[in-house]
Design brief:
The protein is built from one helix and six strands. The chain is α+β, with helices and mostly antiparallel strands. The chain has a three-stranded antiparallel β-sheet, with no helix packed on it. A three-stranded antiparallel β-sheet has the order 4-3-6, with no helix packed on it. A hairpin with a 5-residue loop joins strand 3 and strand 4 (159-170). It starts with 42 loop residues before the first helix and ends in a 6-residue tail after the last strand.
Length: 207
């Protein structure tokens, strides 16, 4: 039976038939398949592609930067230059205050001292009081009131008494006589002198 046969021995490697020493090299068989061409190295191509891609990317970035700068310059560009004809610079004239007319000047009023004069200076023999009679002439251009003070001086020029008189609403050019009565006994020989006069414009109606 076939099952009782032992398994065949393993195949032994056959010795390679080498050509004898000094024999010419064996020519390939004309019916053998052509040998495959040697594989080219692709390392140089990969490096070239990588460098070219980097340069293209850098060029794109530079182009974007220049484009952004151009847009910014356009937005801040100065306005177009005016084509109006050139004119000389304007020189501002010095400022002058506007002239304001003041009130019309009027003739000065005469000195009020000329409006009042003493016409009499007497001493009462009974009580020894001194009095003065004054005449007032309104020399101004308006109705005015007067207030007059009189002082009484002894022989040494010392004031020993004082009196007063007044005129109300005296019209221009009109005159009035008043008595200025001193208070208190004075020595004989006392004289009279005007010390002060006030003249104020007044309404003749008394309003």
């Amino acid at each position: 039976m076939s099952g009782n046969f032992p398994p065949p021995p393993p195949e032994q490697p056959q010795p390679e038939h080498l050509p004898p020493v000094g024999a010419p090299p064996a020519q390939p068989s004309p019916w053998a398949a052509p040998a495959a061409p040697p594989q080219k190295q692709h390392t140089g191509l990969i490096v070239t592609l990588a460098v070219g891609g980097g340069l293209i990317a850098a060029g794109a970035v530079v182009a974007l930067v220049y484009s952004a700068m151009d847009s910014v310059q356009d937005s801040i560009a100065l306005p177009p230059r005016s084509e109006a004809p050139y004119s000389e610079p304007y020189e501002e004239e010095p400022y002058e205050e506007p002239y304001e007319e003041g009130p019309a000047e009027t003739a000065p009023e005469p000195d009020v001292k000329k409006d009042v004069t003493i016409t009499a200076c007497t001493r009462d023999p009974q009580i020894g009081w001194q009095s003065a009679r004054v005449k007032v002439v309104n020399g101004s251009s308006t109705t005015a009131s007067y207030t007059i003070t009189i002082e009484f001086l002894d022989k040494e020029g010392v004031r020993v008494a004082e009196g007063g008189a007044g005129v109300v609403a005296l019209e221009p050019g009109k005159s009035a006589v008043r008595k200025a009565q001193g208070v208190g006994e004075v020595p004989r020989g006392t004289t009279c002198r005007i010390s002060d006069i006030w003249r104020t414009p007044s309404d003749p109606s008394g309003a």
